[in-house]
Amino acid sequence: MRTSRCFKKVSWGLAGLCVAILFAGSIGCNSRIMTIHRGEVINTYVEPQGSPLSIDIVTVAPADFKGDEKENANHDLLPDGGITADVWFKRKPTRLSMADEKGVEHFILDRKQIISFTDNKKQDVYGVRQDGRIRGRRFEKADRIIVEDIPAMDIRNRKSAIYVFGKFMDAEGNVIPTKPVIFSPVDAYHQRIEIEIDKEGIYRISKPTYGAGRAVEGSVR
What we know:
Blueprint: H1 2-26, E1 32-38, E2 55-60, H2 68-74, H3 85-91, H4 95-99, E3 114-117, E4 128-131, E5 144-150, E6 161-166, E7 181-183, E8 192-197, E9 202-204
Parallel strand pairs: 1-8, 3-4
Antiparallel strand pairs: 1-5, 2-3, 2-6, 6-7, 8-9
């Protein structure tokens, strides 16, 4: 009887542990938290006093490059591919492009992999609309923005990455080909990561915690 009770206790203990692990997995053990620091004024390419800036936080994983269709469509999103902001905003997926099974003019990503700061209405955004465009500290009370639950998948793989693209525009309305911030591979960084937006770019503040030789440089402060 004693052995039976002990077995039951151990069984329930293991069951509870499994439930805890499953629950933790369901809320995203690999998700990241990003702190966005801002200069006094930002995005001064056209207006010296600064202009609101749209940004996209984009996550990719090895699965986004598997199969001929995704490999062709998403090749520019490989962490060492040298993508710039103008390419991202030109080829950013839309509801219409995702409905086109043979289209390769746009990237192929799930909407949950894109977090957008934009003035567009939620129903017009393919992705997760986080908030409106970002302004410099001169125009906002908070000096930083916290973005939680950024999805990250296969974080040890060299094809895993978190990008931050800024939609800096010139006087003609063209997106300037600025470098994005790149956290790749994702597990080379702490769960809490930091970037900074200033007058003419977005920069990574966080440094790789290990495996720095594997990390893709991107736009770095």
